[in-house]
Q: What sequence folds into this?
């Protein structure tokens, strides 16, 4: 064993061989790892494509939903416009207070009319009595 | 040459040349790593095998250190691994190759084509060998 170590050529050859072998092994391992990584990436790429297709389908669905939502928005806008016009027309309709005022006025008016009617009926009564009296006087003549 | 007259180191001249070349490579590596970080080349270099290159360089350093650990144990058995030329030089070469190897993915990432990158690697390799030869020749 020691005789081998004593030979400089053997030692030198051993060193160079060891370096060559270990270097090639490291290089080969690195290449293999890279290849494995690349194939793994390719494997996941097909899955990614599948997911991509699904996402595209969902995207189209979402587009359809977006169209519907736009339609609903438009409907809401027209409804809003209508509501506005209804509100405006409601503003012109008489309010409770106006009606109450009108009611009290009406009451006042009807009270006035009753009083006038009473006066009128009194007057009518006195007219009728005076007419009757004058008829009696005439008959008496 | 003046160097050859001043220092006649014998076979140690190769060891010194190896170490100086290694130091040069380390300086270039340091500069390249900083430059790669500034220009954001690391990700590209990673794709070209930077991680493997770093692992190989670490392994080469581990191999060199292991050699000297073994040398400490074998010195009692009358085996001097330090003086067993060209084994220390081969170790230096292994470490230098490992450290230079880290730069290859960076050069590959930076160059416009692989051919240009490899020609640059070739040119740098020739320059380093010339540097080694110059120092070894001067000190031998």
A:
């Amino acid at each position: 064993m020691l005789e081998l170590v004593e030979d400089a050529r053997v030692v030198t050859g051993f060193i160079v061989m060891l370096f060559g072998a270990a270097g090639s092994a490291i290089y080969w391992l690195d290449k293999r790892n890279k290849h494995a990584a690349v194939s793994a990436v390719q494997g996941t790429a097909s899955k990614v494509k599948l997911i991509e297709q699904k996402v595209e389908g969902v995207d189209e669905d979402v587009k359809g939903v977006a169209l519907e939502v736009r339609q609903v928005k438009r409907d809401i806008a027209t409804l809003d416009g209508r509501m506005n016009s209804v509100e405006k027309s409601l503003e012109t309709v008489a309010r409770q207070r106006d009606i109450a005022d009108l009611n009290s006025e009406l009451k006042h008016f009807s009270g006035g009319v009753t009083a006038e009617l009473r006066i009128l009926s009194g007057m009518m009564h006195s007219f009728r009595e005076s007419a009757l009296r004058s008829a009696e006087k005439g008959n008496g003549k | 040459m003046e160097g050859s007259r001043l220092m006649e180191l014998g076979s140690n001249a190769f060891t010194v040349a190896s170490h100086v070349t290694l130091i040069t490579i380390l300086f270039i590596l340091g500069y390249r790593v900083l430059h790669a970080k500034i220009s954001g080349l690391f990700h590209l270099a990673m794709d070209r095998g930077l991680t493997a290159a770093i692992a190989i360089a670490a392994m080469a350093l581990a191999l060199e250190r292991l050699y000297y650990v073994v040398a400490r144990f074998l010195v009692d058995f009358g085996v001097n691994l330090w003086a067993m030329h060209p084994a220390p030089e081969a170790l230096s070469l292994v470490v230098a190759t490992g450290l230079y190897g880290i730069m290859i993915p960076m050069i590959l990432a930076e160059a416009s084509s692989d051919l240009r990158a490899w020609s640059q690697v070739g040119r740098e390799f020739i320059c380093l060998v010339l540097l080694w030869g110059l120092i070894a020749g001067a000190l031998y």
User: Anything to note?
Assistant: The first helix of chain B runs from residue 2 to 6. Helices of chain B lie at 2-6, 12-39, 42-47, 50-74, 87-110, 114-139.
